[in-house]
Amino acid sequence: MDRLNIGPIENHRQREEGVLVYPVYSRRSQGLSIGINLFPDHKGCSFDCPYCEVFPFKQDTPFSLELMEKQLFRELSAAQNQGIIVKDVCFSGNGEPSLAPDFFAALDAAARIRDRVVPDAALVLITNGTGLLHDPIFQGLAQAASGPKALRIWLKLDAGTAAWYTLMARSAIPFERLIRAIKEFAACAPITIQTMLCAIQGKPPPQEEVTAWEGLVAALAEIGACARCSTGERARGIQDIQLYGKARPAPEDPLATALAPAYLEERAASLKAALERSLPPPARSAIRIRVFP
Ligand code: SF4
Question: Can you tell me the distance from the alpha carbon of 173 to that of 281, in angstroms, rounded to the nearest whole number?
């Protein structure tokens, strides 16, 4: 039954085609993450990010909840038997997990297996936020984030202007509509903001975009600030901000290219200053800003 001792993969591209559950070293989780892929037979996404790492693949076995449960139990048990700490169980994979028909059933199963085998591991959803436009998904995620599952929602916010969003997401979903839903959600549940910082066709985000993005993050942080207690703890709104760079190959390379690590550090410092200008001290010190070049 043991499987994990083959060694976790370094990135998603190395996983076997069709695999539903895979171990991966995660920079952002800072350790072993067990990924769950709800799209083994096709890419299923509402975005078309130019830096997307999902390469074309050919296999036609659809997602199976039963198989996912078996594989997840096997990988988590193997980690436990081998004395390896699992940092999280993470819904990611070839698309937008919250839009997969089996997402909530898979989430229930993953929470149950996590609680049984590795109760200290976090449960994470990496999302582009477009599921929030659908009320049942919005409500389900708010409950999962605030309730006993303690689902951590890592929410993509790559742009502060419609112009940069158009370049980064290439989606038919209007920017303003998506931002409205994200603001509503931040008022209901804790979130981690994830922002990809890269150049498109050799050009970094223009200053207008940088300023607008900082204003948007500050506005989202203020939404959470109304829920903080006097110690600065935040039960909802932004908990954490992750700025990450393009570190791995993508099918559309070189359309999107990496920016220098120093640029990401500068953006983090600039955001920190923007938050200091707009938030009271307990709230801003409760928000972590981390950089992953
Ligand atoms: S949201 Fe994620 S899966 Fe979808 S296109 Fe962008 S990077 Fe790829």
Answer: 36
Q: 22: how many CB neighbours lie within 10 A of its CB?
A: 20
Ligand 1 centroid–CA 47 distance in Å is 6
Count CB atoms within 10 A of the CB of residue 162.
Answer: 12
- CA 107, 109, 110 angle in degrees (round to 5)? 65
CA of 43 to the centre of ligand 1 (A): 9
Identity of the residue numbered 21: V
pTM: 0.92
| pLDDT tens-digit map of 131-150 | 999 999 999 999 999 899 99
Domain boundaries, the chain: 1-156, 181-293
**CA 214 from centroid of its chain's CA atoms:** 19
> What distance, in Å, lies between the first and last C-alpha atoms of the chain?
37
Q: How far is CA 211 from CA 12, 206, 223, 251, in A?
A: 32, 9, 19, 30
